[in-house]
Every structure is written in structure tokens, then in C-alpha cells.
Design goal:
alpha/beta; FAD/NAD(P)-binding domain; D-Amino Acid Oxidase, Chain A, domain 2; 2 domains; disordered N terminus
Length: 420
């Protein structure tokens, strides 16, 4: 908790949500001369920002590739599937899936890939500068990432994605099984090949969030932790006030950066925010003796493996199960089983944390950035899917530019809240 600055009921800019997106926006606004108060229901950076694998991935292609929904439906009753859609009659989920299904085609996949690559590469560059300029101690490293394969047919099918990346300005090197094992002795003899993305990077996400919070406070921002939003009111086409567990708060400007919780608050404002919580899992260990140096995705099992000096993590998978708060043992065990197929030492000596978090997934796999057309003092910064850490730096920059009247670094039209 921040004890050096007492939170004021009224703020210049009131940011709802203290994950990496809200904190990045807060820091950018502070550096642009605005006053900022952040409201966070838990601890700053303690939700989806905390337990992900910390990879910074311009190489990441859209989720709505042709055939993705078909896989999800096929695996619906497979509890440990890499992508699982829990059977449900929830109208919001059904509507989201229909919108997503319409985009699972080659044309829309390529269009999204082009837009997203521009955003991701801009954020990758901005993130490294931000970390250096602010002195953020978060174990950042220009590590690259590996996509690793055991199945020759899967490796062959992935060649089209590997060929697309250079067209998007992203380097991708194809490695044989022998070459990738020479690069990463942690991999076992079953690996048949890999794609290496040297422009990617990694950091420790919980450390990054904590350092962002530190920088926000040092710059004069206020972070109210344990501050749960209980209601919100509008008047005259503006947000009038936000009621919280710590009292009423108002702001000249409001930024909605609530991640997977965004549609819940949006309904109270009459807004359609088509986000579904995509549940991901991770297990954090002390480092095994033979830990991979390069972050990697074990592709057939969709398991991400990241090592830092301070630890080791298995993570990923995607489960559409609503706002389910259970720590699903079946899905955690699937991470360990998947890693064991590829790695000599798949786990570390000691489990430090088992975790889940909800990713804010939009049906077109693009974030929602920009001003609301119906509420004059509301700006949205949400829907970053699996890439909140990767996209945090550019999001903060774009939000600050818009709210201070500066020319945007990138065209915001593809991310407009009105596109839905």
C-alpha cells in the first residue's frame, strides 16, 4: 500500500484497474504532466499481470487461425485440452464464439496479423526503452523465443506461419532437431525442429508490475489497493462518480483498464464490451539444474516454459469457462505432463506457486483502445488477450497521447471501441 500520499476523492485522471495496462497508462500520463489515481481491487499487478510466462512476443500470430474453433469444439469434453471451451448456454459466450468463428478464415487471420504485428513491434521497442529510462528491475533480457515441435507433421504445417512472419517484418529462423538441441541442451531427443524468433524477449512479469507501481508512486501517482468498485454513475453523457469499498471517487477523465472484468462494469454503463475471460494457468518452481536458457513454447501441448535467474515457470493453455475461480488440478497436471515430453528436467525442485488468471479475450484478438463515443470522459484500454505484458508499453503511450491531445504514434482505428 502507498502510505506517502493520501488518496484524494477527486482525480485528474482516474484509472480503473492496476494491472500492467493500467499502470503503464498511469506512468505515461504522469510523464505527460497529468495527475493520476489508480483503483485496484487487489494488489497492483496481482491478477493476470502476475503469473503469466513473461514473454514479449512480436512473433505472436492471431488466435483466430483457420481451424482454431473446430479444435476447441472437438476438445470441448477433454478436460486437459490445450484449448478448451467448457459447455455452456451463456448467451455472452455463445455470441462471442459466433463472432470469433466468423474470423477463423485465412483473409481475416492475415488482416489481423498485419495490424497486430505493427502494434507488437512498436511496443517491443517502447518497452525496452521504458525499462531502461525508468530503471525497472524486472529481469528483462533480449532472449528471443523458440516454438518447439516433436511431431514432424505439425512442424511441417507450421512452415506457413514461419514464412508469414518475415512478410510482417519479424525474423524467424527454422532449426533442425539437432540444431535446436545444440542451442538448448535442456530439450530431449524427441524434438524434431523449432522456429526461433530472435526479436522476442522476456521479463519476470510480477517484478515488472511491481516496478511499474513503484515508478508510478515515485512520479506522484496514487495507487489505491484493496479498492473494489461497487458501482458507477453517469450524468450528462459523462461518468459522474465511481463508488468503491473505500468511498466515492471522481475524475475529470476515466480510463477503464479492468482486463477480463471490463464487460462487467461496461454493462452498468450501457456499453457492449465483447470480452470473454480466457483462463490460463501456471506453476512456478525453483530452477531445475538443466533449465532452458531461451523461453519456449512446446507447440503440440501449448505449454510455455520460461526461466529467470530467480525462478522457472510452466504456463499457458486456454480455457473458456466464464469467471470460474477454481484452480483446476487437471489443467495444472497437463502442464507438467506436456513439459515432460520435451525436456530432460521438466520441473524444478520446489513448487513456489500454482496460479490461474483470466486473459481479456476479444473476438478479433485485438485490444480495445480509445475514447467512448457515448461517455465523453471515458477512455478504454482493455482486451489485450494473451499479450498484456507485450502490449503494455505502447498502450500506455497511445492512451497518454490521446488524452493529452498529441498526435498518435499509430492509427487507433483498428482498435476503436466502436468497431463492435
Amino acid at each position: 500500500m502507498n502510505t506517502s500520499i493520501s488518496p484524494a476523492p477527486h482525480a485528474d485522471v482516474l484509472i480503473l484497474g492496476g494491472g500492467v495496462i493500467g499502470l503503464s497508462a498511469a506512468l505515461a500520463l504522469l510523464r505527460a504532466g497529468r495527475g493520476v489515481t489508480v483503483l485496484e481491487q487487489g494488489s497492483a499487478g496481482g491478477a493476470a499481470s502476475h503469473g503469466n510466462c513473461g514473454t514479449i512476443t512480436p512473433s505472436h500470430l492471431p488466435l483466430h487461425a483457420p481451424g482454431t474453433l473446430a479444435k476447441g469444439l472437438k476438445w470441448m469434453f477433454k478436460a486437459d485440452a490445450p484449448l478448451r471451451i467448457r459447455p455452456s448456454l451463456d448467451p455472452a459466450l455463445i455470441g462471442w464464439l459466433l463472432r470469433f468463428a466468423r474470423r477463423c478464415n485465412a483473409r481475416d487471420f492475415l488482416a489481423t496479423a498485419r495490424v497486430k504485428a505493427t502494434l507488437l513491434q512498436a511496443s517491443r521497442s517502447r518497452l525496452e526503452s521504458l525499462i531502461a529510462d525508468e530503471g525497472l528491475a524486472c529481469e528483462f533480457e533480449r532472449s528471443g523465443t523458440l516454438y518447439v515441435y516433436r511431431d514432424p507433421a505439425s512442424f511441417e504445417r507450421a512452415a506457413s506461419d514461419a514464412a508469414l512472419l518475415p512478410e510482417l517484418g519479424i525474423r524467424c529462423d527454422t532449426l533442425s532437431g539437432d540444431a535446436v538441441r545444440a542451442m538448448e541442451p535442456a530439450l530431449n531427443g524427441s524434438v524434431v525442429g523449432a522456429h526461433f524468433h530472435p526479436g522476442d524477449a522476456r521479463l519476470r512479469p510480477n517484478a515488472y508490475a511491481a516496478e511499474l507501481a513503484r515508478a508510478v508512486r515515485a512520479a506522484g501517482g496514487v495507487i489505491e489497493e484493496g479498492c473494489r468498485i461497487t458501482g458507477i454513475a453517469t450524468a450528462g453523457g459523462r461518468i459522474a462518480h465511481v463508488d468503491t469499498s473505500q468511498g466515492r471517487r471522481t475524475g475529470q477523465e476515466i480510463v477503464l483498464a479492468l482486463g477480463a472484468w471490463s464487460p462487467l462494469l461496461g454493462r452498468q454503463l450501457g456499453l457492449n464490451i465483447p470480452i470473454q475471460p480466457g483462463k490460463g494457468y501456471s506453476i512456478t518452481y525453483t530452477r531445475p539444474a538443466l533449465a532452458p536458457v531461451t523461453p519456449m513454447v512446446l507447440k503440440e501441448r501449448s505449454v510455455c516454459v520460461t526461466s529467470w535467474a530467480s525462478g522457472y515457470r510452466l504456463g499457458s493453455t486456454m480455457e473458456f469457462a466464464g469467471y470460474d475461480t477454481t484452480l483446476n488440478r487437471v489443467r495444472l497436471d497437463a502442464l507438467v505432463r506436456g513439459a515432460a515430453e520435451y525436456l530432460h528436467e521438466p520441473v524444478g525442485p520446489t513448487v513456489e506457486e500454482e496460479w490461474y488468471g483470466w486473459r481479456p479475450m476479444t473476438p478479433d484478438d485485438l485490444p480495445i483502445l480509445g475514447r467512448s463515443s457515448s461517455l465523453a470522459n471515458l477512455t478504454l484500454a482493455t482486451g489485450h488477450g494473451m499479450l498484456g505484458v507485450s502490449l503494455s508499453a505502447i498502450t500506455g503511450q497511445l492512451i497518454a497521447e490521446q488524452m493529452t491531445g498529441r498526435a498518435p504514434s499509430l492509427d487507433l482505428a483498428p482498435y476503436s471501441p466502436e468497431r463492435f
